[in-house]
Amino acid sequence: MPNKFKTLLPPNAIPAERALEQATIEEVLSIPDLIRIVKNPALCPVELLPWLAWEFSVDTWNTDWTEEEKRAAIARAAYIHRHRGTRAAIEMSLSSSPFASDVIEWFEKTPRGEPYTFSLEVTQDDRPITLGDVQDLKSAVMKGKNLRSWFDVTFKGNLDGKAILAGYMIASESIQILQPFEFIGVHINGWMTSNFTPTTSFKGATYTLSVQGNFGLITWRADGPATVASDGTVTITGPGKVSIIATDAKGRELVHTINPRLYLIPTPERMYQVDMPAFLASNNGRWPHEKELSLKSNEFAPRGNGALWNEWGNMVVYGWLQDNTDRHLYVTDTPGRPNPESTRWAIILQYGRGKNLGLTNPDRYCTAAVIELESE
């Protein structure tokens, strides 16, 4: 029995079992012992390299690469993942490219470039650059760079020629790779959504637009009764449709529009029910309906489109009178329950709870004038 073969039979194995083992020794020893090398990029069998690349999370893989290029891509994967978001990771990602590349950050340029941008200068040499080459370069950079920074690519080619005098000619082409410029969400007083279509608005209502893919700084402007700050925060100043236009340094534009059908004006202070009709008339408004103020059934109800509280959240942030007591009940024109002839229904915005109020109740409460807007 060869020395390197170790039996797996127990000491009390019968002769027939040992004879069977002896008959299969050569077959067992002929099985390759891969367990020691299969995880090593330099020694792994070539047919298993794609699976090893998957295990090592290799970001860029090309089946047309040579065996040497595939092994090198797997070997540097761990370094790229440890240093992702840095210049070193970009340069390591680009090392598989057949083109020599230089990364030039914005502060290394003269004059300085746009903050948080960089350029990739690719030397073409004497081989053509295909669309596949461009995509490979883009993919390598995108996998290594941080999310904050944007880049452009310049291809440079050198040609040597002979004439009557020695000559030198340089040809170059430039391509910029830009991510899609798009809205990714709207922040409204503790709630974020990608589908903000409020039915209500009021003076002082605010929301912030978030975008991605912009090249350089964004210029914001408002069309309609609103203002917009440099961070994309919108403040409503009056009733009507509002469109916000975002423009990046490349001139690409995004437009976000809300078209609420109701504009609300709250009472500046608590007042008697008998004085509320005059307040509503002075603002050319009507009584609010219960479901226009809140769709909440309890304090844990989710935010969403459809009613004032659900869309804008805690109204104290905007200066409205609100707490969890009966002092700040908002009176509606919804009939009371179960005596609609002599009561009105009033609710606490924050909790969605309601209460019957007698029409002659002597205490002071809140309400809001509702102005119905025409859809544009």
Q: Could you walk me through the main structural features you see in this protein, from its secondary elements to its overall organization?
A:
This is Phage tail protein I. It comes from Serratia marcescens. InterPro entries: Invasin/intimin_cell_adhesion (IPR008964), Tail_protein_I (IPR006521). Pfam families: Tail_P2_I (PF09684). α3 packs parallel to α4 and α6 packs antiparallel against α7 (131-144). The protein has 4 domains: 1-31, no CATH class; 96-175, no CATH class; 182-258, Immunoglobulin-like, CATH 2.60.40; 262-372, Mannose-Binding Protein A, Chain A. It is of the alpha+beta class. It starts with 14 loop residues before the first helix and ends with a strand. It contains 10 helices and 20 strands. Helices cover 20% and strands 29% of the residues. It is elongated and about 105 Å long. The chain has helices at residues 15-23, 25-29, 49-55, 67-75, 77-82, 87-94, 131-144, 276-282, 290-293, 308-312; strands spanning 100-105, 117-123, 150-162, 166-175, 182-188, 191-193, 200-201, 206-212, 219-223, 226-228, 233-236, 242-247, 253-258, 262-266, 271-272, 330-335, 343-347, 354-358, 364-365, 368-372.
